[in-house]
Amino acid sequence: QVHLVESGGGSFQAGGSLRLSCVASGVTYSTMGWFRRAPGKGREGVAFISRGGGSTSYADSVKGRFTISQDNAKNTGYLQMNSLKPEDSAMYYCAASQLNYPGFGPSFYQYWGQGTQVTVSS
Q1: H helices, E strands: number in the chain
Q2: In this predicted model, what pLDDT tens digit does every residue of 44-95 receive, in sequence order?
Q3: Which of 80, 91, 90, 93 is nearest to 16 (CA)?
Q4: Average pLDDT, whole number, for the chain?
Q5: Residue 64 region, left (φ>0) first, then alpha (ψ -120 to 50), else beta?
Q6: 3 state SS of 121
Q7: Can you spell out the DSSP letters for 1-41?
């Protein structure tokens, strides 16, 4: 059975930092991505990382502030979020894809976690 479990969300102050984690089990994947959905908005791709080569890609809105990483031995992905802004407030989801370069298209990710809420106050 496939499970992706996110953790690390909560309430934070603008300018602060946090790290989200995503533990994957029961699945072999090629790419892990992080997405977010704010109230009243659509799902936005934030970052993704290739399991094999470690190549990464970021949405323009988070470049220079967020860093995606992974520990393949632990089947765990991370999203380090620095210089938080109120507009970063959203439900954050990790997702796993069996494609090598799925990009930010949600339909290319086969497995999804339940999400973890991040709230940033000014």
Answers
A1: 0, 11
A2: 999 999 999 889 999 999 999 999 999 999 999 999 999 999 999 999 999 9
A3: 80
A4: 96
A5: left
A6: strand
A7: --EEEEE--EEEETT--EEEEEEEES---SEEEEEEE-TTS
